[in-house]
Amino acid sequence: MLKRALAVSILALTAAMPAHADAISDAMAEVQKYAGEKTTWDGPTSGPTAAAGKKIVVLAADMKNGGILGVTNGIQEAAAKIGWEVTVLDGAGSVQSRAGAFGQALALKPDGIIINGFDAVEQQAALKQACDAGIPMVSWHAGPVIGPDPANCLFANVSTDAMEVSAAAGKWAFADAGGKPGVVIFTDSTYAIAIAKADKIKETIEKLGGTVLEYVDTPIADTSSRMPTLTTSLLQKYGASWTHALAINDIYFDFMGPSLAAAGVPGDGAPKAVAAGDGSESAYQRIRSGQYQAVTVAEPLNLQGWQLIDELNRAVSKVEWSGYTSPLHVVTKANINADGGDKNIFDPGNGYRDQYAKIWGK
């Protein structure tokens, strides 16, 4: 009986192994779809020519955030091409400062406003004021929905597909851990999009059979003060069972390295950091040098800056939004020099600058 029971157990295990191996290879195959170079333009090829002499304001949530900085740089580059004047106001990482910046923006009576990197709901009263004043608004990461958001008076919210970004991060961690990841997820409930992304990461990991050790809600604005001690306490709590740290933004990993080093964790050791956005310069540098980050699922920040100018041009010209969702890119040490990676940014070689300039008649 014992031999028979043992034989049955071995057969069951053998039968299960290929399925598990398939799940790992399937997950990595899904990730690889986003790892290749982006050489073909799949965005708009027609639209209104440039509206002349517009003055716009960019309301940046926090210019210390690499994603927000990258988008702002793209906006300024595109505005110079289209011939518009840009004023950038830094919200400096706090609700109060963003409210103050919004007040300044309204006082300037601009031709358009770009909400850059904060939740539209947070400044709903100010958005209503701008809407009532007839000021067109577009945004980057102002909510979980891509495109028009009439409830918040936003002509278009620009983003990659946040759910695809999160799923790709989760699948990479699952495959990298050989199907047995133990993950800690970092998010910020101040932002609806951050919670949606973190929930998708959690769902992806658990659906594949991995373990979510902890779901940590800690403000992006406080990462510099909170992450060092938080990292140390999580290491003490979970030890070797913590294989991967997954976050909704690279900025969480800007402040983990010293604590990991102090605990004797090598740069390429566990927990491996995987960011579901944005592809900041510091993230590229960490991945390239093998220092406490393995992956960032990057957004084309500069391209998105150009798209925001194009969407705002469509808004002031009173035509529909472009309908474009920009591509995401899984960045690893193996492909880090592709698509602008040599400059520490995901900047697709798909000719987007020329395409937008052609639309605008520039």
TrEMBL record:
Boundaries of every Periplasmic binding protein domain copy: 56-315
Keywords for this protein: Signal
Signal peptide: 1-21
Compartment list: Cell envelope
Principal location: other
SUPFAM superfamilies on file: Periplasmic binding protein-like I (SSF53822)
InterPro entries hit by this protein: Peripla_BP_I, SBP_2_dom
Gene3D superfamilies in the cross-refs: 3.40.50.2300
The keyword Endoplasmic reticulum is assigned to this record: no
Source domain of life: Bacteria
Protein family: Belongs to the bacterial solute-binding protein 2 family.
Name of this chain's protein: Ribose transport system substrate-binding protein
Organism of this sequence: Peteryoungia aggregata LMG 23059
